[in-house]
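Input set for joint prediction.
Command: fold jointly, output tokens.
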Amino acid sequence: MKNGQIWKDIDGNDIQAHGGCIIEHEGVFYWYGEHKGQDNCPGTRRVDVIGVSCYSSSDLVNWKYEGLALSADPSDENSMLHPSKVLERPKVVYNEKTNRFVLWFHSDSANYLYAGVGVAVSETPTGPFKLLHTMQPNVQDSRDMTIFVDTDKTAYLIHSSNWNKTLNIARLTEDYTNVDGLYVSVLIDQEREAPAVCYRDGMYYMVTSGCTGWNYNSALFARSPQLLGKWKLIDNPCEGPGYRDTYQGQSTYIFTVNDKDYIMFDHWKPQDLKSSGYSILPITYDDQSNMTITWNDEWKGI
Ligand code: GAL
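tokens >
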């Protein structure tokens, strides 16, 4: 699979799973993302909401389309799942206590002024997920976001807030379906978005982009010894050709396989979002807690 390009599923169709995440459950990998498989609305940089797609794989290269895990609802204009809204950056986590899969996403109006999150649940990884609620977490505006599950299985919503100036880290309830009221603001006034978070050897890391919409910019990583502690922006983690522009990509998720961390990027095509590409790149760390992302032309899976 050529990094930076759109990838094909095992039926030869374009993989529609943008802004997504990969999780492993009972030996199977599931990739969830925004289905953007239709033309941009004329003259705009948006595609109407289709839903959250789900793909499965055993090797992270051969992906089988499992259908829409969460579908748009064209029948109800007031629903946050109506095609005229925005549904971005879906992230799925499995809750061991309830045996349910919980899907969080950036839920918004077409003009991005609602600035909230949506939460949906399912008993199976492929869905159908049922929407529980949409909200502004802790009464804070929320745009780009991710979900991170800590080593003690406590989960957190990490979201751009305060008009994208600041990131909030908000703890979730035990069933992962809501925020529990505790949150901290980090990287205050640093204007970062597209957070992707991981933990390695006593340190939490967060890769973010700057706020330039679909247009690429330089990634930066931040780190903190405590998740709710004092995060510091460090540097661009990327190396190799095109590192300065994040290889024309934007961070979306970090996952771990066989004790190695990998980052997923979206390579947006604002005028033709359905053709936006993907890359998956390895992350390495040195003993000074610096993070390096290395470009490879190809993603070969595991
Ligand atoms: C980006 C963001 C995407 C999408 C886009 C819309 O900054 O990361 O998820 O919201 O803006 O312009």
